[in-house]
Design brief:
Elements: E1 5-9, H1 10-15, H2 29-46, E2 50-54, E3 72-76, H3 83-94, E4 100-103, H4 107-115, E5 119-121, H5 123-151
Parallel strand pairs: 1-2, 1-4, 2-3, 4-5
């Protein structure tokens, strides 16, 4: 069964993915943008809709908010809220639409979502899944490009 949505604790994933935006502070706009870019590619491969939640306190007020779409939604919590609060609410609301996968390393959050019947993934497992999917896509594109180039080679 396809997932109704993947709900991601953005900063939890960023802190566990040092190869993503190396040298950038984990709460920086550049690190967030790189995460959003990679997760958009992952959505393009899998077709699974994704919502990325960030604690609003982690972003300076002057930081530009990234563009969202229905397929890859980016949300920041407001004052007095945490990304965890939003994830729990979303997991509960999406239950009637199908299975929800929550990606976080926050054990309390994982217990809460699991208790509601949602699926949970550690950040390390999800990172491996993303990297594997993107590697398979690159390999498939290389293979197709080689095939197409060989079709158009001119005889000498």
């Amino acid at each position: 069964m396809a997932l109704a949505r993947i709900l991601i604790d953005g900063y939890s994933l960023l802190h566990n993915w040092p190869d993503l935006a190396p040298g950038q502070p984990r709460h920086s706009e550049r690190a967030r943008d790189e995460l959003i870019h990679v997760l958009t590619q992952y959505h393009d491969v899998t077709g699974e809709p994704i919502t990325i939640f960030f604690d609003g306190a982690g972003a300076p007020a002057s930081a530009a908010k990234p563009e969202s779409s229905r397929e890859v939604e980016v949300l920041f919590s407001r004052a007095g809220q945490t990304a965890d609060d939003l994830i729990e609410r979303a997991a509960h609301r999406f239950q009637s639409y199908g299975e929800v996968l929550v990606v976080t390393d926050d054990s309390a959050e994982r217990d809460t979502v699991g208790g509601m019947g949602g699926s949970v993934s550690s950040c390390a497992n999800f990172i491996r899944a993303v990297e594997m999917a993107l590697t398979e896509l690159r390999d498939e594109l290389r293979s197709r490009n080689r095939t197409e180039r060989s079709r158009f080679k001119r005889p000498k």
